[in-house]
């Protein structure tokens, strides 16, 4: 995804299909994604606070570990697309479910 599109998503703010989470909290991530899966899908931006502050996350180990643990926490197992993006030298994770 292009930075402009990602910045536009952030600028729109949270809504029924878009949520922001500033830090890595697997339990909250699982709850948010489950909620999206029970509706019409959605996107979670990890590394962005609800007030649109871009803090970024350390992605060195997070992606593989997150994928493994979310597959155990969300049933039935659902495809989760995880995309790593850079904004101002900060790593943002975009988690998509449909």
Number of helices: 3
Largest sheet strand order:
1-2-4-3
Distance between the termini: 17 Å
N-to-C order of helices and strands: HEHEHEE
What is the beta-strand fraction? 15-25%
Oligomerization status of the protein chains? single chain
Query: Can you tell me the overall shape?
Result: globular
Q: Which structural class do you get from the secondary structure elements?
A: alpha+beta
State the helical fraction.
25-40%
Q: Main beta sheet: strand number and arrangement?
A: 4 strands, mixed
Q: How many whole angstroms does the radius of gyration measure?
A: 12 Å
Task: Please write out the topology.
Elements: H1 3-12, E1 18-21, H2 26-37, E2 42-46, H3 62-73, E3 81-87, E4 90-97
Parallel strand pairs: 1-2
Antiparallel strand pairs: 2-4, 3-4
Helix pairs in contact: 2-3
What do you see in this structure?
It is globular, with a radius of gyration of 12 Å. Helix 2 crosses helix 3. The longest helix is centred in the N-terminal third of the chain and has 12 residues. The two termini are 17 Å apart. Strands 1-2-4-3 form a 4-stranded mixed β-sheet, with helices on both faces. It is 35% helix and 24% strand. It has 98 residues and is an alpha+beta fold.
């Amino acid at each position: 995804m292009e930075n402009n599109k990602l910045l536009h998503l952030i600028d729109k703010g949270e809504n029924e299909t878009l949520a922001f989470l500033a830090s890595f909290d697997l339990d909250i991530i699982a709850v948010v994604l489950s909620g999206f899966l029970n509706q019409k899908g959605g996107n979670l931006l990890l590394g962005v606070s609800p007030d649109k502050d871009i803090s970024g996350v350390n992605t060195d180990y997070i992606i593989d570990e997150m994928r493994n643990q979310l597959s155990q926490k969300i049933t039935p197992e659902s495809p989760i697309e995880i995309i790593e993006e850079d904004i101002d030298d900060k790593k943002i994770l975009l988690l998509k479910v449909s």
